[in-house]
Each structure stands twice: as C-alpha cells, then as structure tokens.
C-alpha cells in the first residue's frame, strides 16, 4: 500500500486516541464546575441564613432610612477610612452582595440559578442601599461596590428577558385560588393561566420519567 495511506491511517488513529482522552476530560471538568457551583450556592444560602446577616438585612429595611437623616452618620460613611460594621450593619449587606457579584461576573456562579433564588433580594436591597453607596462613592469613586451594581444590572436585564419567570413552557401551570382577594380589595397580580390543569403526558414526557422500581 502507498505510504500516503499509512500516513493517513496513522493520523486518523492518533486523532481517535486524542479524542478518547480529551472528551472524558471535558466531561469531568464540566461535572466539577457544576459541582463547584452547587457548593457555592449552598454556601451563599448558609451565609444568608446566618443570624448576623439576617439582623443586618432587618436593620437596612427598618432602621437605616431614619439613621441616614443624621449628618454625623452620613459623614462616617462618606469619609475615607475604616467603617465599623457594628455601628453600620449596612456594610455587611453591601459586602455580601458585592462578593456575590464578583462570583457571578467571573462565572463562578451561574446567573440563572442565582437569580431564581436571590434575584428579587438583590434588586430590593440595591434600592434600599443606593443612598449609602452614593455616600461611599463621594471620595472612593465608582469602584466602590461596583460588583453589587453589576449584579443588580444583570438581574434587571434578566427580568426584562424573562418577565414571567422561567417556568418551563411545556409544563402546565396550576390553578391558584385566592379566597380573600375580593374581601381584601387587592388587585389580581397575574391572570389565571389559560392552560389545562391536567394533561395526558406525551410519549416524550413519559420517556423522561424514571420507571417506578418494583419491590
């Protein structure tokens, strides 16, 4: 056989060997990346439930607006130097969101998973903390809590892309009754979905369901 044939065969076999090595490595990397993101999200959830952070969230929501009326309190935030987080619990919240923004920006946490869990919280506390961040930036510039800002901007973009959430379109919505709606005089937030409550599953959907194990 001609030399060109053996060269081509050797090149093809070499490609198969390389592919057999690379593909499992890529799958392993993806698995590790997914596992790392899960661990990071679980860690963030644990941090969120810590007493010190819950108290800081409560402070920002209920006490901070009144404290910001004090010129001395505002001056402590505006001037360059150490800010005591015991006297300014809002700093704990700013730091937590800024840390998360760093994770999301660098791909350590996926946007969709995080926004489904914490997105509304991000947006709400950015609004509450905007006056604080404005004070902090007087002398420190735009770099101060830029990743918190980035996180909020990305969430608002995500909401524009998914105004009704990310509920799978192939899954019917369930009928939700609000028995006190008329009595409370509250507006109906979302119209009832015009979808059947129960549907006969398609063959594709049945194929996705694991068979029930026999005893």
Pick out the low-confidence regions. Answer: 22-32, 191-201, 205-215
Q: Secondary-structure element sequence?
A: HHHHHHHHH
Give the number of helices: 9
Average pLDDT rating? 78
β-strand number: 0
Radius of gyration: 26 Å
> What class, by secondary structure content?
mainly alpha
Binned, the helix content reads: 55-70%
Shape: flat
What fraction of residues sit in β-strands?
Answer: under 5%
Question: Can you characterise this structure?
Answer:
- With 215 residues, the chain is mostly helical.
- The protein has 2 domains: 1-49; 50-168, no CATH class.
- It has 9 helices and no strands.
- Helix 4 (71-78) packs across helix 6 (111-140).
Quickly list its features.
215 residues, mainly alpha, 9 helices, 0% strand, flat, disordered C terminus
Secondary structure topology:
Layout: H1 3-49, H2 51-62, H3 64-67, H4 71-78, H5 90-105, H6 111-140, H7 146-161, H8 181-184, H9 203-208
Helix pairs in contact: 2-5, 4-6, 5-6, 5-7, 6-7
Offer a quick outline of the entry.
The chain is mostly helical and 215 residues long. The chain is built from nine helices and no strands.
């Amino acid at each position: 056989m001609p030399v060109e044939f053996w060269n081509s065969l050797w090149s093809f076999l070499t490609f198969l060997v390389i592919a057999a090595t690379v593909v499992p490595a890529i799958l392993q990397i993806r698995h590790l990346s997914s596992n790392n993101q899960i661990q990071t999200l679980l860690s963030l959830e644990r941090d969120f439930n810590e007493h010190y952070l819950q108290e800081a969230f409560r402070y920002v929501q209920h006490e901070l607006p009144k404290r910001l009326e004090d010129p001395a309190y505002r001056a402590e935030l505006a001037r360059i130097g150490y800010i005591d987080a015991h006297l300014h619990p809002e700093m704990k919240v700013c730091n937590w969101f800024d840390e998360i923004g760093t994770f999301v920006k660098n791909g350590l946490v996926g946007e969709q998973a995080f926004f489904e869990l914490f997105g509304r919280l991000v947006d709400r506390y950015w609004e509450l903390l905007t006056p604080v961040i404005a004070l902090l930036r007087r002398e420190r510039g735009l770099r101060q809590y830029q990743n918190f800002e980035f996180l909020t901007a990305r969430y608002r973009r995500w909401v524009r892309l998914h105004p009704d959430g990310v509920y799978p379109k192939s899954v019917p919505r369930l009928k939700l009754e609000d028995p006190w709606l008329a009595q409370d005089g509250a507006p109906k937030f979302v119209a009832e979905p015009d979808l059947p409550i129960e549907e006969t599953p398609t063959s594709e959907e049945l194929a996705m369901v694991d068979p029930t194990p026999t005893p």
